[in-house]
Amino acid sequence: MDFDLVIRNGTVATASDVFKADVGVRGGKVAALGENLAAGREEIDAANLLVLPGGVDGHVHFDQPTGDESEMADDFLSGTRSAAFGGTTTVLPFACQAKGQSLRAAVEDYHRRAEGKPVIDYAFHLIVTDPTEQVLGQELPALIRDGYTSFKIYMTYDALKLNDRQILEVLDIARTEGAMVMMHAENADCIAWLTDKLERAGQTAPFFHGVSRPRVAEREATHRAISLAELVDVPILIVHVSGADAVEQIRWAQGRGLRIYAETCPQYLFLTADDLGGDGFEGAKCICSPPPRDAANQRVIWDGLTGGTFQVFSSDHAPFRYDGPKGKKVAGEKAPFRCVPNGIPGVETRLPLLFSEGVMKGRMELTKFVELTATNPARMYGLHPRKGTIAVGADADIALWDPSRTVTITNDLLHHNVDYTPYEGIEVTGWPVATLSRGEMVCRDGALLASPGRGAFLPCGLPAPARPKGAPAPVLPF
Ligand SMILES: [Zn+2]
Fold this sequence. Notes:
Layout (H helix, E strand, L loop, with lengths): L2 E11 L4 E9 L2 E6 L5 E6 L4 E4 L1 E6 L15 H10 L2 E9 L6 H12 L6 E2 L2 E3 L5 H13 L4 E5 L9 H14 L2 E5 L3 H13 L6 H5 L3 H18 L3 E3 L5 H12 L4 E5 L2 H4 L24 H13 L4 E2 L36 H11 L5 H15 L17 E11 L18 E11 L2 E5 L2 E2 L30
Parallel strand pairs: 1-4, 1-5, 6-7, 7-8, 7-9, 9-10, 10-11, 11-12, 12-13, 13-14
Antiparallel strand pairs: 1-2, 2-3, 5-15, 15-16, 16-17, 17-18
Helix pairs in contact: 3-4, 4-7, 7-8
The chain binds zinc ion.
Enzyme class: hydrolase
EC number: 3.5.2.2
Cofactor: Zn(2+)
């Protein structure tokens, strides 16, 4: 027997090619791609199926303390289980520093939260909220060298935000050490001022969450983030871009040759402000930041995905239950929007939604789908080529897709621990029917086959896209 596993007769797709091949797996890695491979100890017939790299979701929140009485619904088990059923094999949740906490202590805390739980592989992004001298001078550089090579910083939310001076200090460390900085770009003072004004006028229903975070507040912060990065001469990745105005700023920067990368998410393609405006409190289900915009914006985001403005398509899964005392209603059933936890679930629906509306409806090539959802996130965060592609030597992280299966998304079908999905009732064509991680079947035909804790922690390398312009490429290590 040459292989532990052979996936036969399928159509393989990578970010560059689509071809008929058998995939031979040995020791958890792809060992061969070719026609008529020798027998494997196990065989899977993938005739009429697509053999895609497992998705890499570069933006998820699991078991992250919130600072109030609310609690995230998904831990590292339910979160990774949900991801796997949606065709994803690697997730990058956040290890968030509380103000006053050491960054190292935050990382250790999240490792404890994950222990014994994940069913797929995972790495951590850091969230830097308190860039003290100790953090900047010692902890951050040491953590980057230990494999935590990306971190998110916030320009909004009182508990998380950095001022411009602090952002510059963090960007400077990223430049020196070669890490990737992800930025949440919304202008905090604009939002606070509008929120106060809306509250005084009694406009506190979930719908007004969107009104309090207008596109111009995203545009201004996006422009500022770009300018700060240009000053320091370091690439950055602007996360969860929602509006046409921010897209304009990103294109302007890219057109000037700056290394500005961008991410968008399903909520900006499939939801609008109307979803926040349902009767009563229902709109709270779709409260996230930045908020969903309108149909014209959705078209701009689609164009950005297909046209190369965006490199990464992530879920920004931030799971809160609708009912119960720990979720969206933590401050009561009629709470003002400012008291509603921000975030929506989406780790399981990310890929089927984009596959159906993007690939099946002819908006994007299959190769583009793989690039946006697997290969590029792996590159951006220093996991490529181990993750995010099907190539000899890569981990055998593979999702088998039935491109002809039609599914109506309902929450009953999903495997997260949230009691709703914002995408209830959407019909999609194309569905991941089996997910393999390092050659092991994690789930197949609706059944979970992996045991909790099998997922491995992945130290990340220094991402090539984080290199400053003009910096020489390091000599390859082989
Ligand atoms: Zn964010």
